[in-house]
C-alpha cells in the first residue's frame, strides 16, 4: 500500500508558475477593465509582513512553558504562549510541554508576539478510500494532491466509525490527525460521511438568472502539499473547465479511483473562476473575513456534499478548500475541520 | 344528509386521490434520483438513522412501501370484482395503513431533525435536500390526518349542485395551498421548471470566445497595437473570459486585455491597455478602459493611459508618439 502513496499528477496551480506572476497579474488586469470597485481592499497576492498576519506557520526551534520560538520562512519568531492549557493541540488539547522541537506548527496570534492557539503536527486526509487493510487505508485525494496513507489510531476507530460508517473502498473519508513520516495517524472525523459512493454526488439545485453574489456553504482546509506552508489562498472547486484542471492528462483507470472533474459540478453551483482570481470569504462562526486568491484546483471538494454544523447548519456543499494558514487566519480551528462561510466572487 | 354533512363526506373522499398522488409521486422522485445517481444510496436521508448495512435495503423498502400503499389506495377506491363489504374492508385497511405510515413518518422526521440536523427529509428525492424543518413534520402529520378522515369515506361521485361543487373546489384548493406551504420542495421544483443556465456556469469553449472577439469592434479598434495575434494568457472569472495579447505603442511594451462575455452569440466585449512592464503593483502603470474621444466625430477612439496612483495624470498614446 505504501508504494502506491506517491502517485501524483500535475494540475494548474499557483506552484506551477510562480516566477512569471501570471496568476497574480490576472486580478489586476481584470481591474483594468472593470475597476477594483468593492474589491479595493488591497492586493490578495501582495506579500504581507509577518506582523500583520494573524497566523504563522513554522518549525519549532525551542519551546518552554510560556514561550515558543518558531523558525518561519521570514525568520525566527518568538511568541508568548497562552495561559489556557487547552489552547495547544497535538492530537488533542495538550499543555505546551507536549509540543516537541522540530514539530511543524501553525499559530494564530492574539496580538503581535502573543499566541492565541497552537496546532502542532496537525494533518488531514480528504478523499476516496481506494484500499483498506484493517485500520490502514489508502486514500486518493485527487490528481493534484495524489494519495495518502491514513492509519486510524486504535482508540479512535469507534469515534471515526460513528461519522464514517462505511470505511471501505469507493467511499469518501475526511479525517484529522497527527502527521507522521509516511502517513497520517487519524484521530478525529473532520465531517460526516456522505451516504453515496464517491463518484455519485447529488446534482446541485438549479439557479435561474444569475448565480447569487454571495454563496453560503462549508469551507474546509487542506495540508500544503507542494505549496509554501505559509500560503494564504484556497483551492476552488469550480475552476473554468476550458482553461484549467480538466485539461490535465487523463489518469489511468483504476478501481475506486474517482476523477472529480468528471462527476459534474457537485452539489453547490459556483461560478467558474481561474487560478489567480480573488474571492471574499467570510467566516460566519468567527465573524472574520478577507479577500483570498485562488491558488489551486479544488475539484475533489465537489465530491463532498456535506454540511458544517460548527455554528448552525450550513447549506450543503463545500464552497472552498482553504490552505491551513488561510483557515486559521480567518478564525477557523483546524481540529474542527470546517466553518460555515459565505463566499463572494467578483462577477 | 345536510349540505354540510354532504360536503364533509365528499371532502373525505377527495383525500384518497390526493394521498395516491403524494405516495406515488414520492416513490417516483426517489426512483428518479436513484436512477440519475446510479445508486440507491443517493436517496438515503430518513434511513440515515439506520445502521449502515440497513440503509440501502431500508431505502428500497421505503420506496416499495410507498408505491404499494399508493396502488392499494387507488385499487380500493375503484371498482373491484369483490363484494362491497370486502372492498370496504380492504379500503379501510389501506387508508388506515396510510394514516399510520404518515404518522410514523412525522415521528421519524422529528427524530432525524434532532439527531442529524443537516440531513434533508428525502421525501421527494433530490427535491427534498433542505434540512428537515417543522414544515416537513407538519406536512406528514397533515397527510396522516387526511388518511385518517378518509377511512370511512364513500366512493367519489359528482357533487349535487354547482354551488356545492364550487365550495368543494374551494376547500380542496385551500388544502392544496396548505400542503404547498408546508412543502419546501415546491420552490426547488419551480426553479427547475423555469431554468436557464446562468452565464457564470455556462461552458463556452475558448475557441468560441476568441472567434467572437475577432469579430468585435473592440478587436478592430486595438488590433493595430498587437504584436502577436495569439493570446499570452486566457482565463475566466464568472461571466467574462479574459484574453491578454502582447502589444507595443510609442516604444513601450503593452498588454492589451479583452473581456468577452460568456454568451454564444454576439457577446459584449470590453478592452483595456496595461503597461506590460508594470509587474510590481501598486505604483505601476495601469491603464483604465479606453475613453472614446467625443470631439473628433467619434471616428477613432483615443486610448488613454492612467497613471495609478495618482489617477489625475492622463496621457494619450498619440501624445507619447
Give a short synopsis of this structure.
Chain A is mainly beta.
Quick tags:
A: 347 residues, mainly beta, 18 strands, globular, disordered N terminus, B: 321 residues, 3-stranded antiparallel beta sheet, 9 helices, 49% helix, 13% strand, elongated
Describe the model.
The complex is a heterodimer of chains A (347) and B (321). With 347 residues, chain A is mostly beta strands. Chain A has helices spanning 22-34, 157-163, 324-329, and strands spanning 55-63, 67-72, 75-80, 88-89, 93-94, 104-111, 114-120, 122-133, 136-140, 147-152, 172-179, 184-189, 214-222, 234-236, 278-283, 289-297, 318-323, 338-344. In chain A, the strands form 3 sheets. In chain A, strands 3-2-1-6-7-4-5 form a 7-stranded mixed sheet. Chain A is globular. Chain B is α+β, with helices and mostly antiparallel strands and 321 residues long. A 4-stranded antiparallel sheet of chain B has the order 1-2-3-4. Chain B has a 3-stranded antiparallel sheet with strand order 5-6-7. In chain B, a hairpin with a 6-residue loop joins β6 and β7. At the A-B interface, α1 of A face α1, α6, β1, β2 and β3 of B.
Itemize the secondary structure elements and their pairings:
The complex is a heterodimer of chains A (347) and B (321).
Chain A: H1 22-34, E1 55-63, E2 67-72, E3 75-80, E4 88-89, E5 93-94, E6 104-111, E7 114-120, E8 122-133, E9 136-140, E10 147-152, H2 157-163, E11 172-179, E12 184-189, E13 214-222, E14 234-236, E15 278-283, E16 289-297, E17 318-323, H3 324-329, E18 338-344
Parallel strand pairs in A: 4-7, 10-12, 13-17, 14-16
Antiparallel strand pairs in A: 1-2, 1-6, 2-3, 4-5, 6-7, 8-9, 8-11, 9-10, 11-12, 13-18, 14-17, 15-16, 15-18
Chain B: H1 3-37, H2 52-77, H3 84-115, H4 134-149, H5 162-181, H6 185-193, H7 206-214, H8 217-222, E1 233-237, E2 240-249, E3 252-261, E4 269-275, E5 285-286, E6 304-307, E7 314-316, H9 317-320
Antiparallel strand pairs in B: 1-2, 2-3, 3-4, 5-6, 6-7
Amino acid at each position: 500500500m505504501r508504494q502506491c502513496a506517491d502517485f501524483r499528477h500535475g494540475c494548474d496551480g499557483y506552484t506551477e508558475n510562480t516566477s512569471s506572476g501570471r496568476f497574480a497579474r490576472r486580478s489586476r488586469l481584470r481591474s483594468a477593465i472593470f475597476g477594483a470597485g468593492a474589491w479595493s481592499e488591497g492586493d490578495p497576492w501582495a506579500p504581507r509582513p509577518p506582523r500583520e498576519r494573524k497566523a504563522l506557520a513554522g518549525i519549532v526551534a525551542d519551546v518552554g512553558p510560556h514561550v515558543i520560538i518558531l523558525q518561519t520562512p521570514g525568520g525566527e519568531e518568538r511568541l508568548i504562549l497562552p495561559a489556557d492549557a487547552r489552547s495547544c493541540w497535538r492530537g488533542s488539547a495538550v499543555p505546551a510541554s507536549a509540543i516537541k522541537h522540530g514539530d511543524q506548527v501553525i499559530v494564530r496570534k492574539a496580538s503581535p508576539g502573543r499566541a492565541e492557539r497552537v496546532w502542532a503536527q496537525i494533518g488531514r486526509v480528504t478523499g476516496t478510500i481506494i484500499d483498506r487493510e484493517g485500520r490502514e487505508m489508502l486514500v486518493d485525494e485527487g490528481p493534484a494532491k495524489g494519495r495518502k496513507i491514513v492509519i486510524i489510531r486504535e482508540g479512535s476507530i469507534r469515534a471515526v466509525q460513528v461519522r464514517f460508517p462505511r470505511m471501505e473502498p469507493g467511499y469518501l473519508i475526511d479525517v484529522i490527525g497527527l502527521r507522521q513520516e509516511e502517513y497520517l495517524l487519524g484521530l478525529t472525523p473532520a465531517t460526516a460521511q456522505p451516504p453515496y459512493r464517491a463518484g455519485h454526488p447529488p446534482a446541485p439545485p438549479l439557479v435561474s438568472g444569475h448565480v447569487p453574489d454571495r454563496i453560503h456553504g462549508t469551507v474546509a482546509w487542506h495540508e500544503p502539499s507542494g505549496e509554501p506552508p505559509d500560503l494564504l489562498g484556497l483551492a476552488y472547486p469550480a475552476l473554468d473547465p476550458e482553461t484549467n484542471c480538466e485539461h490535465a492528462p487523463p489518469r489511468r483507470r483504476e478501481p475506486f479511483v474517482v476523477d472529480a472533474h468528471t462527476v459534474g459540478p457537485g452539489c453547490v453551483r459556483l461560478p467558474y473562476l481561474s487560478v489567480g482570481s480573488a474571492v471574499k470569504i467570510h467566516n460566519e462562526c468567527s465573524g472574520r473575513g478577507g479577500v483570498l486568491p485562488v491558488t489551486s484546483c479544488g475539484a475533489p471538494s465537489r465530491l463532498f456534499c456535506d454540511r458544517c454544523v460548527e455554528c448552525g447548519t450550513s447549506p450543503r456543499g463545500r464552497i472552498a478548500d482553504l490552505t491551513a494558514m488561510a483557515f486559521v487566519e480567518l478564525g477557523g480551528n483546524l481540529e474542527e475541520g470546517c466553518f460555515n462561510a459565505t463566499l463572494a466572487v467578483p462577477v | 344528509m345536510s349540505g354540510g354533512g354532504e360536503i364533509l363526506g365528499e371532502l373525505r373522499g377527495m383525500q384518497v386521490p390526493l394521498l395516491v398522488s403524494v405516495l406515488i409521486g414520492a416513490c417516483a422522485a426517489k426512483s428518479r434520483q436513484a436512477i440519475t445517481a446510479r445508486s440507491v444510496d443517493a436517496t438515503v436521508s430518513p434511513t440515515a438513522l439506520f445502521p449502515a448495512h440497513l440503509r440501502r435495503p431500508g431505502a428500497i423498502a421505503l420506496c416499495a412501501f410507498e408505491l404499494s400503499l399508493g396502488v392499494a389506495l387507488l385499487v380500493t377506491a375503484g371498482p373491484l370484482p369483490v363484494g362491497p363489504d370486502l372492498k370496504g374492508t380492504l379500503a379501510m385497511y389501506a387508508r388506515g395503513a396510510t394514516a399510520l405510515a404518515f404518522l410514523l413518518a412525522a415521528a421519524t422526521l422529528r427524530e432525524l431533525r434532532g439527531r442529524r440536523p443537516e440531513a434533508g427529509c428525502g421525501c421527494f428525492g433530490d427535491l427534498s435536500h433542505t434540512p428537515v424543518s417543522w414544515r416537513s413534520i407538519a406536512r406528514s402529520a397533515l397527510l396522516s390526518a387526511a388518511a385518517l378522515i378518509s377511512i370511512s369515506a364513500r366512493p367519489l361521485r359528482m357533487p349535487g349542485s354547482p354551488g356545492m361543487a364550487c365550495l368543494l373546489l374551494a376547500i380542496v384548493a385551500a388544502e392544496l395551498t396548505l400542503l404547498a406551504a408546508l412543502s419546501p420542495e415546491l420552490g426547488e421544483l419551480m426553479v427547475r421548471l423555469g431554468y436557464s443556465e446562468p452565464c457564470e456556469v455556462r461552458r463556452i469553449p475558448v475557441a468560441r470566445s476568441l472567434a467572437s472577439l475577432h469579430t468585435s469592434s473592440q478587436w478592430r479598434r486595438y488590433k493595430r497595437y498587437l504584436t502577436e495575434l495569439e493570446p499570452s494568457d486566457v482565463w475566466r472569472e464568472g461571466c467574462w473570459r479574459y484574453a491578454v495579447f502582447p502589444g507595443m505603442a510609442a516604444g513601450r511594451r503593452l498588454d492589451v486585455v479583452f473581456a468577452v462575455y460568456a454568451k454564444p452569440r454576439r457577446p459584449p466585449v470590453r478592452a483595456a491597455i496595461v503597461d506590460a512592464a508594470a509587474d510590481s503593483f501598486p505604483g505601476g502603470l495601469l491603464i483604465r478602459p479606453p475613453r472614446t474621444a467625443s470631439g473628433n466625430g467619434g471616428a477613432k477612439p483615443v486610448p488613454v493611459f492612467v497613471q495609478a496612483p495618482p489617477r489625475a495624470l492622463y496621457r494619450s498614446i498619440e501624445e507619447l508618439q
